[in-house]
Amino acid sequence: MTAAASARQILVRLHEVMASRMHAQGKLDAVVDIVGEALDSEVCSIYLLREGMLELYATRGLNKSAVHVTRMAVGEGLTGTIAQNIETLNLAEAKAHPDFEYRPETGEEKFHSFAGVPIVYRERAVGALIVQHVDPRRYEDIEIEALQTTAMVLSELIANAELIDEVEAGSTGDGHNGTQVVNGLALVKGLAAGQAVFHQPRVEIVQVVADDIEAERQRVYRAFDKMREQIDNMASQAEFGVGGEHEEVLETYKMFAYDEGWSRRINEAIDSGLTAEAAIERVQQRTRMRMREIDDPLLADRMHDLEDLANRLLRIVSGQLGTAASQGLRRDTILIARNLGPAELLEYDRRRLKGVILEEGSLTAHVVIVARAMGIPVLGRARGLRGLVREGDEVLLDADAGTATIRPSQQIADAFDTRFARTREKQAVYAELRDVEPFTRCGTRIQVMINAGLRDDVSALAMTGADGIGLFRTEFQFLVSATLPQREKQTRLYRDVLEAAGDKPVIFRTVDIGGDKAVPYLRDEDAALDENPSMGWRALRLALEREGLLRAQARALLEAAGGHTLNVMFPMVSEPWEFDAAKAVFDEQLQYLKTRKKVLPEAIRYGAMLEVPSLAEVLDLLIPKLSFISVGTNDLTQFLLAADRANPKLAVRYDWLSHSILRFLRRVVQNVAGQEVDLGVCGEMGGRRLEALALLGLGFRRFSITPAAVGPIKELIRKVELEEITAAMNGWLSSPTVDLRHELQEWASERDIDFE
Ligand code: PEP
Ligand code: MG
Predict the structure, then answer these.
(1) Where are the extended beta strands (E) located within 40-184?
(2) In Å, how far are 88, 104, 119, 144, 290 from 91, measured between CA atoms?
(3) 258 in helix, strand or coil?
(4) Which backbone phi and psi does 611 adopt, to 5 degrees?
(5) Strand partners, 129
(6) Which of 176, 221, 402, 581 is least crowded, fewest Cβ atoms below 10 Å from its Cβ?
(7) pLDDT band at 172 (very low <50, low <70, confident <90, very high)
């Protein structure tokens, strides 16, 4: 008989037992008989986790009186070791293993060989399946695989019959035990606690044994085809992965997706009688085991990629395609992902989503900007994260310290609560500044506005007492829609925002899509060729070519602002003609509305973002046409330093406090001085205390920042003497070797200014 045929025979018998009307205990008793016979073993036993202990539930060959009597802790003896490490043991001589412990009530002294596999449910070991034999022999690979397959069937039975403890965090697990601390980069500061939820959830396998092997094979073939197609598409889409090491990852994905060995092994598992899902999982279990034995960090990284891909294959085959957002969040959640797009993040329920941990990510990636706008702390670059955390684990996210604690002990949780309370106190102090106008110590009024992009964000105006919305990112509406938002829908949003803002000004920025803000419905074949999307076909460049898009937005803005002042700003202007062309679209729409006798805006103020360095060189040509300029330091910095804002490997180079950035900004302030144009800054830089201090010293008097930063920045402003910081900045900038961060910190400390 072939290996597959004998495995299939066991499965067929197991299937019969599972389908029978026997009660759960009867089924377990039948299973130990089937497996014991098939593997020619005197002993076969099932241990299950109950009340935190592994309890003997069924046996053939050991004393029956030991059933429900013999119990051991996870980690105790060979069985406990299997459960603790989620590992398979295959020993010719059980007594020779250091973890062996003898249990006299079982009568097991006469058995020499021992093999056992964990029973895994929702990635946790909930029991073990053991065979023992009188002769000292190692079981063959095929026998071990039969055990592993049986364990999968058992986990299905266990799940249905509720035989085990409610699966709790921290019960058992391989490297999944106890508290783990993950370090990363603080992308959005803050503290949060919740349960881990994977953005791409693991698929639950509901049926292990196949009814029709050929049908299962076809399902896997189709799933492989689809997966390969997806991977090939990703490779041709420049925006995949939002920066980071995506190329490397893609290469690995491709390698695995086309790996003949992988698909062959899955096919063999199907031959043995498993469903497509169970076969994929089965092969994955085997690979995990092998990898664990190899213990090589480089391979471990690759293993994550393979896990990703196997999970993708499982999702395709099972039709469970949605992300965790589509299933809805049930509790306070810390979201776990390799990376996310801004639109994906926005799909989550804002009340339940408390924090995000990414394996990749960078400070100014748009997903991070969105999270900041939502007030959700984000920890990025948390390497190896998905190997350490499981769905449902308790997670304490301390993005201030750049750490996340998984499965915290009570002591750690208490300390975290104390810190949490302290930050809330600090926030309360900032909240008290809501109605306090931000005057510097020397009496200059600084404008502090907020960045926004969603309808709900407008409430932050009242909450923070900010002076207005200095940047309304209109593309957020485009990012959250599955299709291009209709003009009427745009009009409604803009009108709502203006109404909610009341007397306070709102600066609408026309769409900035493209780059890491790609939307599927606006794809252009050429966009796929963008090797560097942030320098590619995006923002105004795209809007001017898709004129219909800009025309619709212009009309929507003009109509929405009927009777109000409309402030409109164009992104990524690199030469004056682009501004002229964009303004012409607005003029044309204004004419149209005039002829239709519509209510027109009381005034229209046009502005440009200064984020492409070339514009600074020709600013004098543009200024006469502008009411305001807003410096977008997020993009400006990446272009000046040629350091991709989304690439975490360049995080150190992407430095807002570098001499070159600050000198450039100072020159802009000087060029604008004395002209009839309002200058402000709306990049993330302005929301950070040390950087804001530098900007004040350079002469910036208008900031548009993330709402959470309004309190801290107001508090800073009130402690600053402008003449002092201006003189200091000028001094530092004239000596190129000065470490500006260090100087600013010293300066702040001396004046009792907290710079964190
Ligand atoms: C910027 O580039 O600084 C900016 C504010 O725009 P965005 O981050 O949306 O590109
Ligand atoms: Mg920008």
Answers:
(1) 43-50, 53-60, 71-73, 89-91, 113-121, 124-133, 180-183
(2) 10, 20, 18, 11, 17
(3) coil
(4) -140, -10
(5) 46, 117
(6) 221
(7) very low
Centre of ligand 2 to C-alpha 607, Å, is 14
433-750 placed in CATH 3.20.20.60 = yes
In short, whether 635's Cβ falls inside 6 Å of ligand 1 is yes
**pLDDT one-digit tens code per residue, 418-454:** 988 988 888 888 889 999 999 999 999 999 999 999 8
Average pLDDT, the chain: 88
Ligand 1 pocket, residue 691 CB under 6 Å: no
Query: pTM for the whole thing?
Result: 0.66
Q: SS in 3 state form for 604-633?
A: EEEEEEECCCHHHHCHHHHHHHCCEEEECH
Whether residue 634 has its Cβ less than 6 Å from ligand 1: yes
For residue 473, the ligand 1 atom closest to its alpha carbon is 9
Q: Which CATH architecture has domain 180-201+324-408?
A: 3-Layer(bba) Sandwich (3.50)
Which of the pair, 479 or 301, is modelled with greater confidence? 479
| Average pLDDT of the residues in 696-722 | 96
Residues 19-34 have a mean pLDDT of: 91
CA of 571 to the centre of ligand 2 (A): 7
CATH superfamily for 3-169 is GAF domain (3.30.450.40)
The ranges assigned to domains in the chain are 3-169, 180-201+324-408, 213-318, 433-750
Centre of ligand 2 to C-alpha 515, Å, is: 10
- Residue 391, beta-bridge partner list: none
The secondary structure of 462-489, three-state, reads HHHCCCCEEEEECHHHHHHCCCCCCHHH
CA 353/CA 369 separation, integer angstroms: 16
Ligand 1 centre to CA of 191 (Å) is 25
CATH 1.10.274.10 applies to domain 213-318 = yes
Mutation pick for ligand 1 pocket among 370, 682, 685 (CB with most ligand atoms within 8 Å) = 682
Name the nearest CA neighbour of 193 among 495, 406, 443, 442.
406
Phi, psi for 523 (deg, rounded to 5): -65, 145
pLDDT band at 374 (very low <50, low <70, confident <90, very high): confident
Encoded tokens for 361: 């990510």
Measured between alpha carbons, how far is 571 from 392 in angstroms, rounded to an integer? Answer: 42
pLDDT digits (tens, 9 = 90+) for 713-742: 999 999 999 999 999 999 999 998 999 999
Residues 482-488, mean pLDDT to the nearest whole number: 86
Q: Which atom, in ligand 1's list, is nearest to the CA of 632?
A: 3
Taking the CA of residue 539 as reference, the ligand 1 atom at the shortest distance is 10
Residue 355: which of 421, 406, 427 has the closest Cα?
406
Cβ burial of 264 (10 Å; 0-12, 13-18, 19+) is exposed
Name the closest-CA residue to atom 8, ligand 1: 634
Which comes out higher in pLDDT, residue 561 or 250? 561
Compute, in angstroms, the gap from residue 513 CA to the centroid of ligand 1. 11
